[in-house]
Amino acid sequence: PFTPAPTPAQPSRRAPHRARAPSGAMASMADFDLQHCVGRSRARPVGDCLGEGDVVRVVRRGTEEVLAMKRLEVDCDGPRGKEVLADLTRASGLEPHSVWLRQYTECSFVVEYSDNLNCKHTRCCVVEELADINLEQELVQRAVNNQPFPGLFAMWAALLHGVQALHAQDCLHRGVCLRGVFLKNGCVKLGAPAPLAAAAPEGYYLSGERSCSAYSADIFALGVVFLEMALLHQLGDFSGGGAEAMLQELQALRGGVAALRSWLDDQCSL
Q: Are the C-beta atoms of 50 and 72 separated by less than 8 Å?
């Protein structure tokens, strides 16, 4: 078991964990049968390196495993593409945690191809465990049917333990949000850390922490996720100004727990 990392008095500025590029013979598209698209990538690039992407359901030939493949366009050449792939799979070199969505680094690879106009492109393909649904989709369904999450505190505690397991190994997640959490067979799963070349999810990380250089930024984002799950509303539904406006509203409360409960009741009222 992991010992929860203590919350530092001052924001931690240690360098984020960087994994080495996968070595040995790499897999290729020939190792998989593609089925259908199950999602789209919403990475927000800091520079001009990362492009659009999608997530497709695939079947691994030989083992017949049904997996998910994240395909992300990279505006750089092959060698640089391998560095981006190492970034996308940087948690694979850590001691695994049961809450983490599993990545298959031995099946992940970089492919270079040309389009119909003979323009060359580079794409990173990361193979992961296939989840049933992401938390954003689940929350929308539950909100429509007014069905609260059963075992909410147990689910959130599991996510907290998963995030702290990353922190205990000097790795920031940088992408904690509803879209980065999944459900599989009724169990909550934390998606892989976000790429360093992408900005942290807007609304979950304070504007001054969009680069997520502190453990506390991940924890704050996870707290926002908890509020969304508890209220059955996404952040934008009850705080037009995003995470910063919500934080200011909470800081302005007086009366401790009673005031917080009153605020939650007010936000939950239709």
A: yes
Q: Is the pLDDT of residue 168 over 70?
A: yes
Per-residue pLDDT tens for 89-101? Answer: 999 999 999 999 9
Q: Identify the DSSP state of 15.
A: P
DSSP character at residue 236? H
Residue of 180, 204, 201 lying closest to 192 (CA atoms): 180
Q: How many CB atoms lie within 10 A of CB 208?
A: 10
Token code pair at residue 210? 């969009």
Give DSSP secondary structure letters for 64-116. Answer: --EEEEEEEEESS-HHHHHHHHHHHTGGGGSPP-TTBPPB-GGG-EEEEEE-T
Q: If you average pLDDT over residues 55-71, what whole number do you get?
A: 96
Determine the Cα–Cα distance for residues 88 and 70; give it in Å rounded to an integer.
10
Q: How far is Cα 64 from Cα 133, in angstroms, rounded to an integer? A: 21
* DSSP H or E segment with residue 208: none
Phi, psi of 62 (to 5 degrees): 100, -45
The token pair at 11 is 């924001």
On whether the CB atoms of residues 221 and 204 are closer than 8 A, the answer is yes
* Residues 34, 94, 66: CA angle, nearest 5 degrees: 20
Going through 117-177 in order, the beta strands assigned E by DSSP cover 120-129, 133-134
Q: Write the CA distances from 114 to 8, 56, 85, 239, integer angstroms.
A: 48, 20, 19, 44
Contact 171, 193 (CB under 8 A): yes
pTM across the whole model = 0.77
Tokens describing residue 77? 């050449």
Cβ(208)–Cβ(242) under 8 Å? no
Measured CA to CA, the distance from residue 5 to residue 126 in angstroms comes to 28
